[in-house]
Amino acid sequence: MAPLTTLNVGGPARFFTLAESEDQIISAFDHADRSGQRVFVLGGGSNILVSDRGFDGLVIHVRLKGIAFEGDLITAQAGEDWDPLVEYCVDRNLGGIECLSGIPGSVGGTPVQNVGAYGQEVSERIVTVRCFDRIAREIVELGNAACGFTYRTSIFNTTERDRYVVLAVTYRLNEGETPNINYKDLREHFEDRCPTLSEARAGVLRIRREKSMVIDRDDPNSRSAGSFFKNPIVATGVLDEIAGSIDQPVPHFPFGQNVKIPAAWLIEMAGFEKGFRLGHAGISANHSLAIINRGGATAAEIVDLKERIQDTVSQKFGILLQPEPVFVGFD
Ligand code: NAP
């Protein structure tokens, strides 16, 4: 499965099917159930780590294609690549997802982890998610509230994990909307000037490229699953403890009653500089939050580095960093 993932790591699938229609997805599930196979639903492969053994079951690669407009609503099938969709919308002067430029993966993955960046989240734009319900064995349309969106989560990756297969997503975008540029990287890039939608997209792409966070065959630092750890949300008491143990300001952002601390900062302060290497795995030279395959890495090597980082950060700060990618075939 390695070539189907952005980390380019992982063994084979026991069975594999490419699904280009809703009917093919449903019949693949019927087949798996009849033969007692486990199923893994693969989208863009940008947020997974597949074990060296691979996946002992059926992998269904969702490749449903199509984009349709109706007024200010845009419906994209789950197998559409995300970034070309953003480009398509920005080119039509439709605002609301321009800060999500350059994010790898497919449309179907966006509601699952409520993809967000630079202050925008897909949940602010999602109207409905069309799904195959594996329990009821029927196609359902879930409204925004039913998806239970919170920071990088939804029912799809928490309470109802593995129940729904995303088939299509409908977003509501606004023509000519002013781009949101609250984040420091963007403000600095535009020197506090308000950009157009296409300028915002170009700015985000440039910032992400500088951090090797845009997939590029010519950039070995981009051979990753994006951010490998979630940015931890902790009680203010934890922040105070960290601040008392270190001789410099701790970056943090309010999050309800709690605070969000950049995982990248914790990793660097725990002694992992950008470009750190462990076997064929490493930390990107351009972003300490990305674990990369330096060439020929095994999943075991990626896991070794992940554990080394988790243990060291936990010993130093008492915070157990949670991985963001989905681990496939490890049980
Ligand atoms: P970054 O911009 O350096 O931000 C690091 C951390 O600081 C994030 O937790 C970010 O919150 C927080 N932060 C920075 N400025 C903030 C502000 N003005 N208000 C509130 N919080 C602020 O992070 P990066 O790693 O280079 O990534 C760039 C963006 O892409 C970030 O927004 C990041 O979350 C996003 N991203 C998303 C995914 C995903 O959806 N799975 C994966 C990779 C990166 P936020 O996380 O709330 O932005």
Name a few traits of the molecule.
25% helix; 20 strands; 331 residues; alpha+beta; single chain; five-stranded antiparallel β-sheet; three-stranded parallel β-sheet; binds NADP nicotinamide-adenine-dinucleotide phosphate
Task: Characterise this structure.
The chain has about 325 residues and is of the alpha+beta class. Helix content is about 25%, strand content about 25%. It has a 5-stranded antiparallel sheet with strand order 5-6-12-10-11. The protein is globular. The protein starts with 12 loop residues before the first strand and ends with a strand. The structure holds NADP nicotinamide-adenine-dinucleotide phosphate. NADP nicotinamide-adenine-dinucleotide phosphate binds near residues 117, 226 and 289.
Please outline the major beta sheet: 5 strands, antiparallel
Q: Please count the helical segments.
A: 8
What best-fitting shape do the alpha-carbon axes yield? Answer: globular
Kindly state the mean pLDDT as a whole number? 96
Low-confidence stretches: none
Rg from Cα: 20 Å
Write down how many β-strands occur, each being a DSSP E stretch of 2 or more residues: 20
Topology:
Elements: E1 13-19, H1 22-34, E2 39-42, E3 48-50, E4 55-62, E5 67-70, E6 73-77, H2 82-91, E7 94-95, H3 109-112, E8 116-117, E9 120-121, E10 126-133, E11 138-143, E12 164-172, E13 174-175, H4 184-190, H5 197-210, E14 233-234, H6 236-245, E15 253-255, E16 258-260, H7 263-269, E17 277-278, E18 281-283, E19 291-293, H8 299-317, E20 326-328
Parallel strand pairs: 1-4, 2-4, 3-20
Antiparallel strand pairs: 5-6, 6-12, 7-13, 8-9, 10-11, 10-12, 14-16, 15-16, 17-18, 18-19
Helix pairs in contact: 4-5
Bound molecules: NADP nicotinamide-adenine-dinucleotide phosphate (NAP).
